[in-house]
Amino acid sequence: MTVEWISFSDLVHKNIKTLEKGTTHAEAYFTMTETTEVAVRNSEILTQNRLTDAGVGFRVAIKNKVGFSCTNTLTEKALINAGEKAVSIARVSAKIPHFTLPGPGQRVTVKKTYDPQIAGITVEEAVDVAQRLITAAEGFDPRVRAKSGRVVFQSGWRGIVNTLGVDHEEKETKAVLYLGGVGEYNGEVTGVCIDVEFSRTADISPEKVGEAVGEKVVKMVNPQPMKSFKGTCIFGPEACSYQIADVLTDALKGESVITGRSFWTGKIGEKVASEKFSVTDSALLENGFSSRGFDDEGCPSKDTALLKNGTLQSYLHNTTTAHALQMENTANASRFPSGFDMVRSIIGKGYRTTPESFPSNLVIQPGDKSKEQLISEVEKGLVIESMAGFAQKGSGLISAQLSQAFFIQNGEIQYPVRGGMVSGVAFDWFNTISGVGNDVKQFDNAVVPSVRVEDVTVVGG
Amino acid sequence: MFEIMEKSLQTNLARQVDLVQIRGQNRIITTCIVKNGAVEQFSSASLGGVSIRVLVDKKSWGFSSTNVCDVDNVEKTLENAAKLGKAASSLKKQEIELEPVKAVVAEVEAPVKNSVGIAAEDIVDIPSEAYKGAQEVGPEVKDVKATYIAVEDEKYFLSSEGARITQSTTRVMLYVDVIAKGAVICPASETLAHTGGLELFDRVTPYELGKKVAEKAVNLSHVKAPPPGMFNVIIDPKLCATLLHEAIGHPLEADLAMAGGGFGSQVGETFSSELVTIYDDGHVPGGLGYFVYDDEGVFCDRTILIENGILKSFMHDRESAALADVHPTGNAHAWDYSVEPLIRQTNIGIEAGDYTVEEMIENIKDGLLLEGTFGGQADSNADFTFGFQSAQKIENGVLTEEFRGANVAGNAIEVFKTIDAVSKEAVLRPGACGKYQFAVQGRVVPAIRCTIMVGGTGG
């Protein structure tokens, strides 16, 4: 443990003690991170950043009225102020029905969530990784340009302590490689193609990511417009990790179920998707980007089946939503939910916010077919590697622009598509899934393969 | 904080590098979210820190930030920044030149009429009133979320060139999101936000805002989805704000343009209908993107970007301005102390035109009036996708049937060439942006008439 962390942790523990008086429950979530980041822009290294941040968020309850306050000033006085502020906010807050905090639980250890090599990374090493990323992409084909990318190495500590006896700390490391590239040919430019690698260890491959971008870009050369049709769409891992995972998450969140706005409210045990569709939440996944020993309220992590062969098994819960719905807590309290949220965009994540239910690693169970096999069975359709546009919360409506898609006819890819959109309700798509690939890829909160869906409306460009 | 920052500027290391820019910030954020009548989240965040950007060997930037603002840490941050700059300098092919600017010494404050420093109970009342307004609309209102946010900033900028700037800014925002369940589940949302204090609610009260959004959601939950295809459309100011910001504004940011975006670097060429004049202005009163100076210490001027369809200028920071040999436009902004400034829009606007919206509708035989926004995205080629909240069918110059929202897509440059009418009234709208980091911005927008692709799901 670093000296800074130990003294910070001591300060937080001391403060929680003082909050025992005058509150029903009190909790402190605290982190300390050091991030080294190299940005790539236009085939060159743009800047190198090193950011350090540490802070604590106090959540206190007076009966079940809850207040929250955070600070990144690490003095005793600032912590006392933040704690008092949380108490004064709790006094005027409305009651949150069923609000609870967890008590102490069995400690779980997850493999490969910390790598000392990341913690000790030098700027020079990070710059070298970024340079290899550019070289790999542009070396793949002379038409490829590395437009925008980043290399991130983060190491830090995460701790939680509450007045019910929860007291956990764990150190963690993360590495992210991201590159977006385009192809320049005959005065034309392809759309941006992206590849990513999310890892907890320094065992990463900028070459693989760079080459993948190069390969994607080259495939997008000479796109052709297509006419509107209804057919088969194979959503690649990237498309699944984004819009499709967003719809799943929104429908599975305990909070959505409590308000009744989840499309799957009251449907536990019912068939809501094709037999081929199984989804789990796996916080214990080895080297999983969002794996952890305890969730952001301090509950020991576990793996949870959410959909099994199309049948709804469980929602995603934190202590309060599980209590409200009288269901088993799945330990999905998260202070790092992705997806756009105005408040979190303004304040930030982690110690700066209260937790909500969110997947750790949302895993769509892979099938046994390769992507090529999935394609070979399609009469007329698309492979959609990436699409731009949001899924509408509640309804599951997705109408997205095709940013990287290929037209399929008679089991073969014919050409890359120029323009066009795909449009439909994801809950309908889940029922017409006709195949799941074995090409799983790790994203920040999802581990997903290609998913093939029948009867999708495609709008020509 | 100022003294500590000043001290690190006086160190030997600071004198050895080409340029040092130090930014400090104290930010207090008060958030109160009322969901379905209960205070779901009420929080106060006190966040501060210092960041240092240095230019070394005339060609490499290093940037480092810290939340611990004592002398030792700030000096360590300077050392880090210099080391980071050095680490890549041998790989940099070109020297970085910065357009020279006057080193400003100033203390400025954005005007606030009614302070946000009110009692906790009174803060709770603001989103609670919005909830009340929404909930009273009826039983089909299923989910109401009202979010109040106040951001108070005190920012410092010091540079080795002599700049010493202090800026205080207060921003207030109220977001209302409603989901209604009629024949279908349908969302609607609306935002009130400005740079200033609680006088934000003088014209529209939180209650009125809540009521308006809920009525919209309930109404839309009983109508069909719009038909897909290419349409003559009128885009209302709210949707126009998203289109302008995402698809025209971003390609006009010099960093994206120089990366080979849709506008290339063809100043003087025609990129849009001659009815269109577009500008960016940091000094729009109340605009959420109100800034007197940017995060390089440059005055945030009004910049004409497109004049009568002809490209006049990009939005610049000092580095891109030097490359383009123009004066920087005050568009280098960082979301907070912890991140580097990037080229961002402040308050982007379209000059109002000559038409009333009624006149614009009159000439459409078969088209749609698209209203509201659910946000969207665009790439540097100006290809965009974004959501609208609702639509009305136009048949022979008359509004006939209402539809739910869907997405529109296309290439903004192509779409802007088809503009054949701009409305008389331009409206100040709040906006937000997520280009590598977050930002709040303003948009000054009229309604426009053009041709666009709608990705509807209806018949």
Annotate the secondary structure layout.
The complex is a heterodimer of chains A (461) and B (459).
Chain A: H1 3-19, E1 25-41, E2 44-62, E3 65-71, H2 76-92, H3 116-119, H4 123-140, E4 144-162, E5 167-185, E6 188-189, E7 193-199, H5 206-219, E8 229-235, H6 237-252, H7 254-259, E9 279-282, E10 303-308, E11 311-312, H8 319-325, E12 333-334, H9 342-347, E13 356-357, E14 362-364, H10 371-376, E15 380-388, E16 397-409, E17 412-416, E18 421-425, H11 426-431, E19 433-436, E20 441-442, E21 446-448, E22 451-459
Parallel strand pairs in A: 8-15, 14-21
Antiparallel strand pairs in A: 1-2, 1-4, 2-3, 4-5, 5-6, 5-7, 8-22, 9-10, 9-14, 10-11, 12-13, 15-16, 16-17, 16-18, 18-22, 19-22, 20-21
Helix pairs in contact in A: 1-2, 4-5
Chain B: H1 2-9, H2 12-16, E1 19-35, E2 38-56, E3 60-66, H3 71-89, E4 105-109, H4 120-135, E5 141-159, E6 164-181, E7 185-195, H5 206-220, E8 229-235, H6 237-249, H7 254-258, E9 278-281, E10 302-307, E11 310-311, H8 318-324, E12 332-333, E13 342-343, E14 347-350, H9 357-362, E15 366-371, E16 376-378, E17 383-395, E18 398-411, H10 412-417, E19 421-422, E20 427-433, E21 439-445, E22 448-454
Parallel strand pairs in B: 4-6, 8-15, 14-21
Antiparallel strand pairs in B: 1-2, 1-5, 2-3, 5-6, 6-7, 8-22, 9-10, 9-14, 10-11, 12-13, 15-17, 16-17, 17-18, 18-22, 19-22, 20-21
